[in-house]
Amino acid sequence: MANRIEFKGVSKEFRSDMLRRRKTVIHDLAFEVRPGETYAILGANGAGKTTTLKMLLDLISPSKGEIRIDGRPSNDPLSRRILGFLPEQPYFLQHLTGGELIRYYAVLSGVDRGEAARRSKKLLNRLGLKSAGDRRIRTYSKGMMQRLGFAQVLVAEPEILVLDEPLSGLDPIGRREIRQLLLDQKERGRTILLSSHILEDVERVCDRAGFLVNGTIKREVDVGAADLLEVLAEGMGGGDMSEADHIADTIVRQGELVQFALRNEEDFPKVQQVVQARGGRIVSVNRRRKTLEDLFVENVSAVEDRD
Amino acid sequence: MKSWSGRASRTWAVATHTLRETVRDRVFAVSLIFAALLLTVSLVLGPLVAGQQDKLIQDFGLASISGIGIMLAVFVGTSLVYREVERRTIYTLLARPIGRGEYLIGKYAGMVLTLLLNIGLMGSLFLLLVHFHLGAFSPGLLAAIYLTAWELALVAAFSILFSVVSSPFLGAFFTLIVFVMGHLSRDILYFAKMLPEGAGRTLVEWSSYLLPNLEYFNVKGMAVYGKPISSSILGGATVYGALYITAVISLAVILFQRKDLK
């Protein structure tokens, strides 16, 4: 089956000021989201996460490159038939009630009016908005807005969910509810693309993640498959460790001790050779799971430091 | 066929929700109260003008319907799309399988429905007052109200166009300029003919051709003085209005499709 979402060589320039100077915010962006996969775009504020999602939805046109949803160009409105979108801090038409909004959006997605009313009722019940369904949206709290946001995403029963920071700004109970909802959708085989900087939640929900740095995916990781082998050695003398650069993921020196972090277990004999060649000895070998936070700091801050 | 019915259904859904939005907005209710007041004032002022009482009531009534309608078309029309972009409610809406053209035409249709509702209510009140006062009303008044509706629809098309490319304040300013110049387009052409040959004259001439001639829709004087309003005047203004609206809304759709919604 083809990829659900594909970005190929996408760039975006904005004219940034009165002098109409160009500023490139997305550079040659390429990634894909496979069917049934939950993919997270991770990045610091201003990295281009929201711009990427807006280009996918054709709210912003890319200056260069190609974006496809289920094989169709993303600027074809039909490509959005199978898609539901939740923006960061969702805003909805304040003059409507929650029920009216969900029915309106269902009709815009091609659902007939009778079915729209049935689905709206069911979803509002499921998301704990049963009694608020007849109230104007302007009276909703932030948590209720987020739940209403999910109701409008799910009302068209989309196969692809695009969620911009779905867990930000929620209290712990709200976060847990939304996380559970995401896991339910995942179990139903939905494809999910989300942006986030709450790494703990991404680790629990996502299959893969891409680190977006200065408008491009710097590295992609399989979430949960990022185990590391940490090798601690001593007595290797001073100087750099350039001969081990291509073997270890990171090399950290702490006085006499040198710590090698290996992504592949098969590289262990090579490290042994380096240590022996320098007259040192291995003190300990530990398996440690590399957290997304480690990877985030490694990938995102390294580039930011360089800038 | 199915795709056409789908487009029509989505556009109609946007239009009816726009009508709901404007009706729930206080501006609509306030405009109706204000219109009712103006019509009542015409009854009070009538006896003060000896011999011209009937004409004053009709003149004042038709002008009130037109004036209040223009205010609605300009100030509500210019904020409709802008407000959705500013408040970011447009994101979840356009993330549906709806084209930007369908959305914008739906918004415009909703604005026209609002104006028709407004003009329908004000017009009915006006005709009731005239009937109550004079014992009958001439069909010319109906024709005048009909053409006022077309004029308002055309002004609303400009307000939607300007709301796509500018802020509500600037949009309202530009739309009011089009409205005023539209009523002066014949005078502008006359003025152009008096200018010396050259780029300035050509520019003024072209602008008078490009601006809508809103005087085509103004038969209020004829209606008040009981002059017959021929079907060719009504038909000609209807075709002119429909073509002009199509051109303005098409331009608005093209510009809206190219707009980045940051």
Described by strand count, sense and barrel closure, the largest sheet of chain A is: 6 strands, mixed
Number of strands of chain A: 14
Mean pLDDT of chain B: 88
Low-confidence stretches of chain B: none
Radius of gyration of chain B: 20 Å
Q: What oligomerization state is this entry in?
A: heterodimer
Q: In percent terms, what proportion of residues of chain A is strand? A: 25-35%
Taken in chain order, the helices and strands of chain A follow as: EEEHEEEHHHEHEHEEEEEHEH
- N- and C-termini, Cα separation of chain B: 34 Å
Largest sheet of chain B: none
Alpha-beta classification of chain B? mainly alpha
Give the strand order, joined by hyphens, for the main sheet of chain A: 6-7-8-3-9-10
Helix content of chain B: over 70%
Poorly predicted parts of chain A:
303-307
| Tally of separate domains of chain B | 1
Overall number of strands of chain B: 0
How confident is the prediction overall: mean pLDDT of chain A?
87
| Helix-residue proportion of chain A | 25-40%
Please report the two chains with the greatest interface, counting residues with C-beta closer than 8 angstroms to the partner's C-beta: A-B, 34 and 26 residues
Q: Given the C-alpha coordinates, what overall shape of chain B results?
A: globular
